[in-house]
Amino acid sequence: MLIALTRPVPASLPRCELTHLARTPIDLAGARAEHDGYARALASLGCDVRPIAAADDLPDSVFVEDTAVVLDEVAILTRPGAPSRRPETAAVAAALEGLRSLARIAAPGTLDGGDVLCLDRTLYVGLGSRSNRAGADQLAAVVRPYGYEVRTVCVTRCLHLKSAVSSLATGLILVNPQWVHPHEFEPAEAITVSPDEPAAANVLLVGAAVLCAEAHAGTARRIEAAGLAVRAIRMQELAKAEAGVTCCSLMLRNGS
Fold first, then answer.
1. Where are the alpha helices (DSSP H) in 151-194?
2. Which residues contact 23 (CB under 8 A, 6 or more apart)?
3. CB-based burial, 87-121: b 16+ in 10 Å, e otherwise
């Protein structure tokens, strides 16, 4: 059983942090409808969806992925790169209690969960505007006893590493080669996004299905051509807040 921790869209979402996008009006009701559809999709794929209490004073709190890195053996509470986001971790820590032993990233380290891609026993950490070397080094120290290796990747043209690359299946990734080079993740094989869909590399593997934003139909066809099932979900309003499909949940295996 997969557990999916989620958090409702806050009333303050239109004041979210932005790094690479110009601010445009966000339809709050539309964003909430998209988030509800996201949760329904996870549930339909067999996930135990567990919402964390809303935090209307924290504009980015819906993007719960950034607050922790959850492995089978341990959960690492992050120290987000944007100071406004650091209060988000307290409620996530409470939700993870009893599910995992907890570790924490401390100053001067910064780490966003969206910058951490786990492929087998390797954790790739994107170093950019949100995650720094000290955060990556602290993560490496926590996970090394469990048999994980940490490798760093430079991220400059997008918000998070998983804006540019995500996992499709064991040994297979989806990547925007204009934002990060596929050779960084060898021996994994790579499918590249449709050239007119630069933000399409962020997808979420849930069981045997891949959640993909419905706006990225060209990339979805490439994924399906590789023999994978795609579930398209609407992310139009959430995308205005630099959200991707992975951002809105923390996924963990139950009973690990």
1. 161-164
2. none
3. ebbebbeebbeebbeebebeeebbbbbbbbbebee
Helices (H), 13-97: 28-44, 89-96
User: Is 247 annotated as catalytic?
Assistant: yes
pLDDT single digits (tens) 103-119: 999 999 999 999 999 99
Interior/surface letters 221-242, b for 16+ CB within 10 angstroms, e for the rest: ebbeeeebebbebbbebbbbbb
Instruction: Report the DSSP beta bridge partners of residue 165.
Output: 175
Among candidate residues 47, 158, 212, 247, the one labeled active-site is 247
- Dihedral over alpha carbons 161, 133, 124, 18 (to 10 degrees): -10
Q: Is 160 a catalytic residue?
A: yes
Tokens 């492995």, residue located: 71
The domains found in the chain, sorted by start residue, are 2-253 (3.75.10.10)
Which of 160, 212, 216, 248 is flagged as catalytic? 160
Write the single-letter amino acid at 153.
Answer: V
**pTM, 2 dp:** 0.97
The conformation of residue 247, written as its DSSP 8-state character, comes to: T
pLDDT for 47-88, tens place per residue?
Answer: 999 999 999 999 999 999 999 999 999 999 999 999 999 999
